[in-house]
Amino acid sequence: MPAEYAVRCPPPPPLPRSTQVDPIALELKTMYDLYALCAGRMTDLLNWLDTEGQR
Questions:
Q1: Are 31 and 14 in contact (CB under 8 A)?
Q2: Where are the domains of the chain?
Q3: Cα(43)–Cα(18) distance, integer angstroms
Q4: Which of these, 36, 48, 34, 35, lies nearest to 5 by C-alpha position?
Q5: Which ranges of the chain does DSSP label H, i.e. alpha helix?
Q6: For residue 38, which of 12, 20, 1, 15 has the smallest C-alpha distance?
Q7: 1-44, pLDDT tens digit by residue?
Q8: 34 alpha-carbon distance from chain centroid
């Protein structure tokens, strides 16, 4: 199993202080990117446990 899977996912970014739409949309995109990274790592880990972990 790759060592990077032992690293905790980064915390989501704080909400921007601005009420403008563009900064909020950018932060939301950043949060979605973090979620996708962690969700992919979790899927990889589960797949590894199903195959390699049973050996």
A1: no
A2: 17-54
A3: 35
A4: 48
A5: 21-51
A6: 12
A7: 677 777 787 787 776 676 666 878 888 888 899 899 888 888 88
A8: 4
